Amino acid sequence: YAFASCENLKKIELPDTLKELSTGLFLYTPIENITLPKSLKIMKEYCLSSTRLSSIEIPNSVENIEKNAFSNNEVLFSVSLPSFLKIIKKETFSYCEKLKYVFLPSSLERIEENAFFACVDLNYKIEDGIKYLDEVIKTIRASKNKSDAKDNLERQEKEKQALEKENMLKL
Q1: For a 10 Å CB count at each end of the chain, is N or C smaller?
Q2: Residues 74-119 pLDDT 10s
């Protein structure tokens, strides 16, 4: 959590030798621009969550992106994943509601639950040769459907509360 909640941090240059983004490293920062070094291997939980990044290119050196690494990025629009990534972990991009473009590499074997939860406008490009294509697509669609169901429940609850309030006023 070294830079977590640093209110004025908008851009940073990382050293070329950096191997890991630690847990919560830039959590709740308004960072808008970051270039990840080619030496990077691991991106820990929440390392780039709740930032102001609009796009990110993750270098091919990255072998592991832990859960929630990018969650709650309200303006994240596009993501380029590393060519050798095998797993997109649970809730990695959850609540990145503006996320529209993701390139899925052929190395991808699994997308865990809610990896793209609430990414309602997500379009994905799939590299030829993806082994578990049906499973990958099914997981992305399930995340979208869960998000739609949650939105419907919230809308119904608000309508119910409004109706109850209206009825209370009549008494």
Answers
A1: C
A2: 999 999 999 999 999 999 999 999 999 998 888 888 888 888 888 8
Q: Say how far apart CA 103 and CA 80 lie, in whole Å.
A: 6
Tokens of 97: 């509601």
Quote the Cα angle for 37-54-5, to 5°: 75
Would you list the DSSP string of the chain? Answer: -TTTT-TT--EEE--TT--EE-TTTTTT----EEE--TT--EE-TTTT-S---SEEE--TT--EE-TTTTTT-TT--EEE--TT--EE-TTTTTT-TT--EEEEPTT--EE-TTTTTT-TT-EEEE-TT-TTHHHHHHHHHHHHHHHHHHHHHHHHHHHHHHHHHHHHHH-
CB atoms within 10 A of CB 5: 13
Does the predicted TM-score (pTM) go above 0.85? no
* Angstrom distance (rounded) from CA 16 to CA 91: 28
Q: What is the spatial distance between Cα 164 and Cα 120, in angstroms, rounded to a whole number? A: 30
Sheet bearing 42-43, strands edge to edge: 20-21, 42-43, 64-65
Half-sphere exposure of 165 (CA within 13 A, CB side): 6
